[in-house]
C-alpha cells in the first residue's frame, strides 16, 4: 500500500498570508494540534502548531530554563498575544516540514514518523505539490489490519 492510497485528501490548510488571528479561528474551530501551511502554488510552506503558538506567547528564556517555574505575568502574556494575533502565519510558522512522496510505502511512512517523531506526514507529488496528509492513527490501523 502506498501513501497516496491511505492519505486524507481533504486536509484543512492555512495560507501563509493569512493573519494569525484568522488561523487561530480555524485552529480552534476544528480542534487540531497543528495545520499545514500551503502557498498559492499548492506547495507546503510550513506548519502552524500549538508549539509555535506557545513559543510566541511565552517568554523567550523558557526553552533555556526547562523545569524552572517563574511567576506568571498575565499583563505581559496579554501584550504578547495582542501582538501575536496581528502577525502573518508566514512570520511564525515552522518552515522545515518533513514530507513523503505519494509513492512511499506504508512502512516508509511509519519509519519517517518514528525517526522524526511526527504525528502527521504531508504527502506530495513529484513536483512538490501538496496532495494530502497521513496521520499516525491511520498508519497504525493499516499495519494492524494487514496482520489481522
UniProtKB/TrEMBL annotation:
Name of the protein this chain belongs to: CBS domain-containing protein
Residues of the CBS domain: 7-65, 93-148
Pfam family of the protein (one): CBS
Swiss-Prot/TrEMBL keywords: CBS domain
Keyword flag Metal-binding: no
Signal peptide extent: none
Gene3D superfamilies registered for this protein in UniProt: CBS-domain
Amino acid at each position: 500500500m502506498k501513501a497516496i492510497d491511505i492519505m486524507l485528501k481533504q486536509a484543512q490548510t492555512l495560507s501563509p498570508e493569512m493573519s494569525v488571528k484568522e488561523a487561530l479561528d480555524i485552529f480552534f474551530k476544528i480542534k487540531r494540534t497543528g495545520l499545514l501551511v500551503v502557498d498559492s502554488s499548492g506547495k507546503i510552506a510550513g506548519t502552524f502548531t500549538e508549539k509555535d503558538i506557545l513559543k510566541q506567547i511565552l517568554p523567550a528564556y523558557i526553552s533555556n530554563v526547562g523545569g524552572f517555574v517563574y511567576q506568571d505575568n498575565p499583563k505581559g502574556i496579554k501584550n504578547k498575544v495582542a501582538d501575536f494575533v496581528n502577525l502573518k502565519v508566514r512570520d511564525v510558522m515552522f518552515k522545515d516540514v518533513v514530507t513523503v512522496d505519494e509513492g512511499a510505502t506504508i512502512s516508509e511512512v511509519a519509519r519517517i514518523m518514528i525517526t522524526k517523531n511526527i504525528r502527521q506526514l504531508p504527502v506530495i507529488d513529484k513536483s512538490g505539490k501538496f496532495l494530502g496528509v497521513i496521520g499516525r492513527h491511520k498508519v497504525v490501523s493499516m499495519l494492524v489490519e494487514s496482520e489481522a
